[in-house]
Amino acid sequence: MAFLRSVARCNSFVSKKLHIRSNAEFNGKLLRSELLASHRYYNELKRELNTRFNSSIASATSGHKPQQKATQNEKGMSPKDPLDLSFNNPNAAFKSKTTGELIRGYVVYLLCSSTYLVDNNLKLMKVFKALLGERLFALMMKQTFYGHFVAGEDRHKIIPTLERLRSFGVKPILDYSVEEDLSQEEAEKREVESISSRLSNVRLIVDSLFGYNDSRSSTSQAPAAPVTSSDKALPQYTVDKTFADRRYKVSSARTYFYLNEATCERNMEIFIKCLEAVSGATFGTGITAIKLTALGRPQLLLQMSEVITRTRQYMMELVGGQGNVMTHHKTIKDLEQYYSSMGDNKDVKEFLKNITSDKEGILHLFPWSGIVDDNAQLSETFRVPDPKTGQMRRLTSQIPPKEEEMFRNMIRRLNTIAKAAEELDVRIMIDAEQTYFQPAISRITLEMMRKYNKEKAIVFNTYQCYLKEAYSEVCTDLEQAKRQNFFFGAKLVRGAYMEQERARASALGYADPINPSYEATTQMYHKTLTECLRRIKILKDQGEAANRIGIMVASHNEDTVRFALQKMEEIGISPEDKVICFGQLLGMCDYITMPLGQSGYSAYKYIPYGPVNEVLPYLSRRAVENKGVLQKIKKEKRLLRTEILRRLIRGQLFYKPEGKYIPI
Ligand SMILES: Cc1cc2nc3c(=O)[nH]c(=O)nc-3n(C[C@H](O)[C@H](O)[C@H](O)COP(=O)(O)OP(=O)(O)OC[C@H]3O[C@@H](n4cnc5c(N)ncnc54)[C@H](O)[C@@H]3O)c2cc1C
Fold first, then answer.
1. Is the whole-model pTM more than 0.70?
2. DSSP string, 640-656
3. Residue nearest to atom 28 of ligand 1 (CA)
4. Whose CA is nearest to atom 53 of ligand 1?
5. What is the reported pLDDT for 283?
6. Which Gene3D superfamilies match (predicted)?
7. Residue 377 binned pLDDT confidence (cut-offs 50, 70, 90)
8. Which protein residues touch ligand 1 with a CB less than 6 Å away?
9. Which residue ranges make up each domain of the chain?
């Protein structure tokens, strides 16, 4: 039955796909090639599902297990194991693995414990590749690191992994993990070139010398405003060559370096293919991970982040007190009063007209919905009245038309992806990145949520709890979701860029954005999660759909996972409410993910895929990250050893994993 349903889904899938493509805004050539590729993929997928369906019918008629599975599925009776909260049960952790896979995992973790191997991993991989040749090297990698951490070369080859995980109650977050293997010099060159084009270079210098003064005398009625101290370039948003290689001290996150608009277009296509793979192979339950820095020029995110920070400073100067615009609870009437000294100014009137507000006060000073919808001109949009000078003040430097167009391209790409996700009925999770991009990424994502999360959570944001501001950011965004009536989806992480953030803050002379200690980060994580759960509970108690708030606890920390489970129990939120899910990387902490999935919780594995030779940087990062979490490796190794031994003693070395679980 499950396969019948999936074949039927496939049929509607292609018509949906056609619809998406007809809506898509990319050019005709791309559209045709995409359509052909999608059609080919659909046919292949359909063939594959039909084959599997036929074989399941064959086994069913011969009385084999698949029929039991189908019957159980029909009745909706997924088996449910009791959950060992100490996550110490090797059988529960590894019942989805063959003994060969367990041995491979053990060897990989042994290798990850060697400082020499980890420190020189990328060099060694290249040496082996040169010695063995591509084919033998690929074989060696598949028997070790690649086989353990990566699901397969392409979206077809990953299907067995996805299906196996699914049969053990676990869903995928797909990530096409191909990374360019750039040298540090090349990465720095690209970053500096992309961040400071010749024009912006001049602009950066001029702006930092003179501040952002709106010199558009033709539209501005008041005389030019004098430069104020607040107009000086904010150090966290300046470009510094020392930190141009954004991979510096980052092991658990991927970095995209901007090359040109065509590369961003290709990245968009890859994300859409991920969505299709997720939709085809998981029947709507999967997620695709998206990085905004892959979709456009990072300079634009940097500039927009600066605008957001300046807007907060502006509100602080105007009305006093910390926080963002929403937390000030000011009304348009209040602002009219602040600007009264500017008289009957048409720019001020226009500005006030574009403010987003409701009965509880002002939500945004700028028309963000317009920015993610249509052809907004950024440098024209981010202007505010300055009562001190009686003039409009620009919060960003003048952006050249070409760069404005690049920004619109980035937004168009994101919209195309979100529309595809909506049509395919799958979800996208926007990753959180460095703090100098993050305010813009978060703002844009929230507007995407407002636009696409009207009926359910399709777009998810990510919040890094190592940030001092994490809790207040989440509270504000939850409040916006409530006031603007959209579904709020969030992935909570601790954060992947800590060392780089701290080094950059110290070198460029701005306040460290990271919590002072690991304990403070954990506290922030737990406090933020508790607030989300509290709001979910309120929704439940009020008889509203609890899933208006959906949270992913993305952590390898078992204390945090336990904390979430205990809080769920305490507050009265069950897995069936489908509001809390858990996420870990493929090949890491199976002892957390698998028991969660098998006991009926919503559990996800972050699934990287891509050709062997092109995911080496990803594998390298996994090795480094694992070296940094020795306690977790120790536990993983101990559990693997116990399970291998148990199978040996019980004569189960040829154990074949067959799950009958159905993910919630
Ligand atoms: C499914 C998934 C998705 C992810 N997506 C993202 C993403 O979009 N963006 C992103 O940035 N990261 C992301 N991460 C990575 C994540 O942020 C963490 O780097 C990683 O998971 C380690 O944190 P932990 O809670 O798993 O483990 P733990 O070992 O408990 O925590 C380690 C983390 O604690 C924090 N920390 C350590 N020491 C200190 C200190 N002295 N002061 C303050 N904080 C400290 C750091 O963030 C460090 O990475 C993701 C992780 C997963 C599993």
1. yes
2. HHHHHHHHHHTT-TT--
3. 557
4. 584
5. 66
6. 3.20.20.220
7. confident
8. 252-253, 431-432, 462, 464, 466, 493-498, 514-515, 517-518, 521, 554-557, 560, 583-585, 606, 629
9. 2-75, 90-185+247-298+426-649, 197-238+299-402
